[in-house]
Fold this protein.
Amino acid sequence: TDILGIGAGGGTKIQLDGNGHMTNATQPCFLVRNSSDQSDIQIVGGVVTVVFDTEVFDQNADFASNTFTAPVTGRYLFTYNVNFSQADADHTVLQLTLSTSNNAFTNNPSTDLSAAYSSDPSTFALNGAVICDMDANDTALVKLSCEGGAAQTDIVSNGVRTNFGGVLLA
């Protein structure tokens, strides 16, 4: 069954199936991944943007250049997972941040590999999920902070295990 909802800016076609499940082909929703490793992350006290250059899907074409841009004001759910290899056990800080126009949501506590590992872990992953408010044209991207140790840690390209996704909830 098709239902046409008329809003201030015109109409949006919403599909309902026989069980009442609703779909909207232009609902902002995306999942992206990386296609190659980011090798030897530099330790300079700053942050590095995690590169997501391959769209698994981008339902409303709101994702480009590692960044999601909110098409409308609302509440958005973002998830992110980053896999690492060659992580240096001497890192005193290794943390991900979902950076939006309004806030920075950082994994807490930040990971101190020097306290957790006696030798370099061959693989390691960090992830997060955040519901946040965004205004139209606000942006969101994933950043990595890395301090201490050597510049040897790699962000791994491994299918969709390193990924960033989001959806408009309300």
